[in-house]
Amino acid sequence: MIGDRFSYGPLELIGMNRRRFLYVTGMMGAIAGCSGQGADPGTTNTPESANLSVDDLSVAQSTVDAGESVRVSVDVANEGEESGERTVRLLVDGEEVGSRDIEVESGQSTTIEFTVNAERPKTYTVSVGELETSFEAVATDVGGVIDSDTTWTTNDGPYTVVETVQVAEAATLTIEPGVTVWADEDLGQDSMFLMHGKIIARGTSADRITIDGGDNRPTIFDADGSPPDAFLHAEYCLFRNADSFWMRGYGGFNLRHSELRDVGSSYIWYPYQGGRNGDKYLRSEINIEYNKFINSGGFSIGHDNVVTVNIRYNVFSGWRRANKGGLINNWASYDGSETIVEYNSFLEMTDEVVLKLPAGYDDAAMSASYNYWGTTDMDTIEDMIYDENDDIESAGEIPFTPILEEPHSDTPTV
Asked: How far apart are CA 78 and CA 12, in angstroms?
């Protein structure tokens, strides 16, 4: 057998000539299917070799919602006189995303289908060999001030944040289960949301909300200058590709049953400060519970009054430094306020500082009992904690015993 191999643009075609006793001189002769030039004129001509070509590259839909998939098809025909085998490769925006190995009989054709996921709003260019076509993934543009109660739905979504969404005081933005929100490329590093009101992003275990910062990695929620009753309730959400999940104050949040993937550290700045009504406070807790932090940062925390920041039942896999150091740090715990870190799993971080009381902050404090550290070696765990045992200008010690010898059963796994 004689093997033929040649390139057809980004599509590489690989074939096999099945004739016996045919000697072909030169690659171009093989591709063209030379028919025994120089043979005895009295003999029967050898049949032409396989000659496969691609044609009619098409997409099932020219426009789809971002997050959906598109069916791409291409025809492959064999105009030669022998069966041939080929590999057909599909490229999207110049990168190979799929391939098919096929065999086509002489004189026959076949249609190959691929599925392309349109992950974000943009124009996608698809190609096979020198053939090229495109389709567009679209979303509803949002941005500017929301000054009355508003709901984002799957029917109207997905959504692209083209400028910072500003939720005004006394307004509530509700994001329904299954909604996807993207940051537009032109948003740059401006925050996706500026919170002076409330955001309720409550998905379900089967239908999460997705908020994606894209390549520019903006802050997702910014509470700069917010009143103390500004509040985010996020549950069963996926947050990804962002510089931080939360920045500044004076609002607060609950984050539960969610996943943060490739998100930088967050900065919690005096939540609910000024929110006292007589002897009572509007809110007194930030709860960060039952979440997965994958290649994501933790939290840098300062609080006062009676506020408690609970960081419980989370798994952290992949360390990113928080502002002022460590994965989680506290730099202010005035007036009996607390940062409580417990029942978490810290995975593959034995060479990093996980918890920290930074030097020079006299009122910093944190408690950290009942965590799983990825090790039971006490010397190693002590090295994962930075407090007055490492620097006399740190405010005190971080109590961390007893420890868990394995992850808590209520803590998620990765």
From this structure: 16
Does pTM top 0.85 for this prediction?
A: no
Residue with tokens 């409330």: 198
Residue 330 in contact with residue 306, Cβ under 8 Å? no
Tell me which residue has tokens 């700069």: 224
- Would you tell me how many other CB atoms lie within 10 Å of the CB of residue 411? 21
| Nearest-angstrom CA–CA distance, 68 and 127 | 19
Give me 210's structure tokens.
């997705």
Percent of the chain at pLDDT above 70? 86
Sequence-ordered alpha helix ranges (H) in 2-78: 27-32
Strand partners, 311: 288, 341
Q: How open is the CA angle 301-304-309, to the nearest 5 degrees?
A: 45
Please give the pLDDT value at position 16: 37
Contact between residue 57 and residue 133 where contact means Cβ atoms under 8 Å apart: yes
CA dist 244 and 215 (Å) reads 13
- Amino acid in position 74: V
For residue 184, list its beta bridge partners.
none
Please report how many Cα atoms fall inside a 13 Å half-sphere around the Cα of residue 368, on the Cβ side: 27
Alpha helices by DSSP H, 304-385: 378-383
CA angle 85, 89, 92 (to 5 degrees): 170
How far out from the chain centre does Cα 381 lie?
A: 30
Report the C-alpha gap between 35 and 63 in whole angstroms.
Answer: 47
Separation between Cα atoms, residue 313 and residue 20, nearest integer Å: 69
* Amino acid identity for residue 99 in this structure: S
Alpha carbons 307 and 333: distance in angstroms, whole number: 9
Q: How many CB atoms within 10 Å of residue 136? A: 16
pLDDT digits (tens, 9 = 90+) for 14-59: 333 333 322 333 333 333 333 334 434 333 344 568 999 999 999 9
Residue 324, phi-psi category: left (phi > 0), alpha (psi -120 to 50), beta (remainder): left
Which has the closest alpha carbon to 313: 271, 342, 287, 272?
Answer: 342
The first and second tokens of residue 41, run together, are 């004129």
